[in-house]
Amino acid sequence: MNKRMIARTLGFILLAEAALLLLPVFTALYYQARFPSEDNVLFEYLATAGIAAAFGLILISVRPKDKTIYARDGFAIVSLGWIVMSLVGAIPFTITGEIPNYLDALFEIVSGFTTTGASILSTNGGGAPGDLSALSHASLLWRSFSHWLGGMGVLVFLMAVLPLAGGGGDIHLMRAESPGPDVGKLVPKSNQSARILYLIYTGLTLTEILLLYIGHHCGTDPNMDFFTSVCLSFGTAGTGGFATRVSGFADYSHYSQTVIAVFMMLFGINFSIYYLLLCKRFKDAFRDEELRIYLGVLGIAVALVTINTFKTAFTSFGDALHHAFFQVTSVITTTGFSTVDFNQWPNFSRVILFLLMFLGASAGSTGGGVKVVRCILMLKAAKVGARRLSHPRNVTSVTFNGKPVSRDTLNNTTTYFIVYSAIYVTSVILVALDPNLTSITSVVTGVAATLNNIGPALEELSPTANYGFLWPLSKIVFIFDMLLGRLEIFPLLFLVMPSAYKRHFRLHKPY
Amino acid sequence: MKIIVVGIGKVGQTVAEQLALEEHDVTVVDTDPDAVNDAVQSADVIGVIGNGAVQRTLQEAGVADCDLVIALTGSDEVNLLCCLMAQKTGGARTIARIRNPEYTGQIGLIQDSLGLARAINPEKEAAAEIQRILKMPVARNADMFSMGKVELISFIVDENCLLCGKSLSESFAHIKARALLCAVERGSELTIPDGNFVVQKGDVAAVLIPTAEVPDFFRQIGFRTSNVRNIMIIGGGKIAYYLVKSLLRLNVSVTIIERNREIAEKLSLEFPKANIIHGDGTNRSLLLEEGLTHMDALCSLTGIDEENIVLSLFAKSVAPQVKTVTKVNRTAFQEVIRAIDVGSVVYPKYTTANLILQYVRANSKRGGNGGDVQKLARIINNRAEAIEFSVAEGSRVIGKTLTDLELKKGILIGSIIRDGKAFIPRGSDAIHAGDSVIVVTITQRLTEIDDILKD
After folding, report:
1. Residue A168 and residue B335: Cβ atoms within 8 Å?
2. Which residues, other chains included, contact B137 with Cβ-Cβ below 8 Å and sequence gap of 6+?
3. pTM here?
4. Looking at chain B, which terminus has fewer C-beta neighbours within 10 angstroms, N or C?
5. CATH of B230-346, one of 3.30.43.10, 3.40.50.720, 3.90.550.10, 3.40.50.10540
6. What's the pLDDT tens digit per position in B260-295?
7. For B39, which residue in chain A has the nearest alpha carbon?
8. Which architecture, in CATH terms, is B355-452?
9. Do domains B230-346 and B355-452 have the same CATH topology?
10. Closest chain A residue to B22, measured at CA
11. Are A170 and B339 inside 8 Å of each other by CB?
């Protein structure tokens, strides 16, 4: 591995984080005067930014002998980068005393960066440490902002701003960080692609902030002030799911909830579709197979849940439809916001939501899960396999969007499924050791909710509960599950494989 | 520039890589998903899977706002159709690879009637390169500029060479021929030498000389410059075909060894004057029997790189005076090949890629009137570039003496061609409008003559 290049890139990541930590610093500065109880957080955020910048500067002073990076280096950079970023990002929560336990703080920020939205904070109110009500505005913003950063990826962000590896190396970083089986660039150059992605991302986020704030401004929703609009929009954009109020989403108006639901749906769509729309290639955009199936599944699930919850959980059909739409989009896009406690819903609806957790959003979106496209590919491959039972010599190619899918992609998808299942099973076994969890449903859905980056699960981990009461071991397992889920397993798995550290070759100078 | 490369074979891959390195927006198109995936992973390009001669595929690749389409598939006909579709759909300029020897006679007609910007024949270009090397036996590589008025020749300095062990100003005081040593490679280090530079044994030197003085120069620095009269060629493929055709015109005696009987017979019909042997070119006794030791040169042109390299090494061992030219298809192991002395090595892939780069450079100028780059050659294992520019009225280099021009680092003005005559300029010379100038650079990527100046 090219250790110098890895160190240098990690340095850039830390510098970027230091710069991004200035956002909570400014927030603290702004709210310091207005809320006397918050005068202690400014220095803490500034100090963390300083530490990150110092380490970053040390690391970027490493001069690489050779600037080429290969797929394995890309994996190492991305997984180490995310770990380092989380370790640093958790510091302010602990030193401000808002989340006294560092492991809890780490859980919280990993949950943020991986856009999971599972929280260890209790929601009792009253302002005790470890409760959501105790968080300063700066910390609330940093939590939500981590969703926004993690959604599109920090390395993709860096790539948009400065040429990291240059040449062909960037694609390895993009591939390791972006979700989906086949990472397609939008335009030939990696850094331009990254720039376009972030432009679309920022544009959509700003639109959402504006729409939410307009609702507040016109008086429909007194609870949706500007600060909340920004935080929730960050959470929606990254398909994260951190709430900012102890009462969750129930206090917001139907207008705000609908805006958020629609934007969750939009952020679960492959961003290349938006690029096609911007290029006025409407036909290509709407012909996309994944888009159609994603919207189709969403529609069917909303219909089923509406019918099931009407008369059982809700008395009016309108309410049933509204909350079914919000909850289904929230789970399929792996956001994890909740307007109601869906744990109280009938079993059928709960099972549908549980299954949607695995399906996840589209590849190339900010959502997590297995991804719609992988499921399509596997079903198609299964269909081909079934046909060969009756016609052993039959040849059928698997196609996607009318293009043949290469054997490599199919193999990778299969491998992904197998490793994914293995990790799921292992996590379930480890979490089952936790004496604080009593029901199987909590264990099984809890792992699904973290591995797929959703957040709330069922029963003991339902939207009204939190992850704070768990054993440290379970928290560590969940932290790894969240990272594995966001980075799509392989980059992180690669780090723990012994072959990553073997020297396969040593280059000699020509004699 | 926005460029679409159709057909990602060996050449296509190299071209796409080089163009991406020069900061162009490159889209590659191929029917083979694996080939496209490989290209996308190894260079900063985007891929489209599909047949490049189909309008829909081209549209998907963005032909509508693309500047250049380069068709490099294995089939000439597909390439032509692809260029035609690209022009009719998007109005892009097009370059097609056309390699079938049977079409060579009508290349001009094809180019004109289909409106191609270029028709490229890699084998023919490689043959031309080999011929230039054969003309000057000491040369490792040779490139021509300004329609053959100036040559850029690279050679290895040995202990018999007069340049060896002296500083350049010292040795050039005794040399009457006008020549300019413009780049020297020692080990992995590449320099543009000045007067105090001391040449050592084993250096690879590139020298720019007006063509008429080439033999003089090499005689004066102590090289034998006899003409090549007897040539043995192993492998009767397309490169051999073009090479033999032009060699026979020069009355050189040619022996071709070809393994395939049918191909050998075809060659014998085409070239009755050549000595065509049906046999295995790797058969030691056959080579000796056909007089390898009495040859002036051996060209190893079989389809297998390893075979070619071993053949050249064998020729060097049995007859050190034989000039060897080795064709190598794979570019991945250049360092290894450089480290062993196999004589001249020709990479047909790079020959093609360079031609395309030359065209792209000439047409990617920001101003846009085009045509500044007349010729681009990459020398010393592609590590340095020599570019011929035509200087138009209004250029910033006109009117000052060379000493007064503020050049960027790593740039050398090698030669000026004025009124059809080439000369090596001194510090007191100035560039005029209408001149052609040959610039050698090891660091910069130049697209127009003004690029050599500091901003």
Report:
1. no
2. B224, B225, B226, B228, B296, B297, B323
3. 0.82
4. C
5. 3.40.50.720
6. 999 999 999 989 999 999 999 888 899 998 888 889
7. A168
8. 2-Layer Sandwich (3.30)
9. no
10. A167
11. no
